[in-house]
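ESCALATION

Customer reports they have been waiting on this structure for their group meeting. Please prioritize. Original submission:
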Amino acid sequence: MTKYLLFVVLFIFVGYGFVEAWPLIKGPSLSVSFPDNNATVPGGIVTVSGTAARAVQLTLDGEPLLHEEDGSFSTILSFPRGGSILTFVATDRFGKRVTATRTVFVP
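Update from on-call: job pushed to the front of the queue and completed.
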């Protein structure tokens, strides 16, 4: 009987450890709320916003982008006429990366 009880307790601990470790194993996530891909921006000024979960570093076109503790970020950018490509990269503390790309057009 104690053998089965020990097995059940061990199984619960391993299951709990897996559930707690899953976000670390999964890596960062990145969601860009605005702008939408292929967005047309009259005037060339746009507020870029979104969320980067489990990320210690967030960059926009290779430059650091500040984000809050909850992962939200927001910045105002100005674009010249024509098309521009925005590349977001979120990196977690283990070096795992996730990338999101948005294309913006200014008439």
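Sent to customer with the following note: The mean pLDDT is 86.
Escalation resolved.
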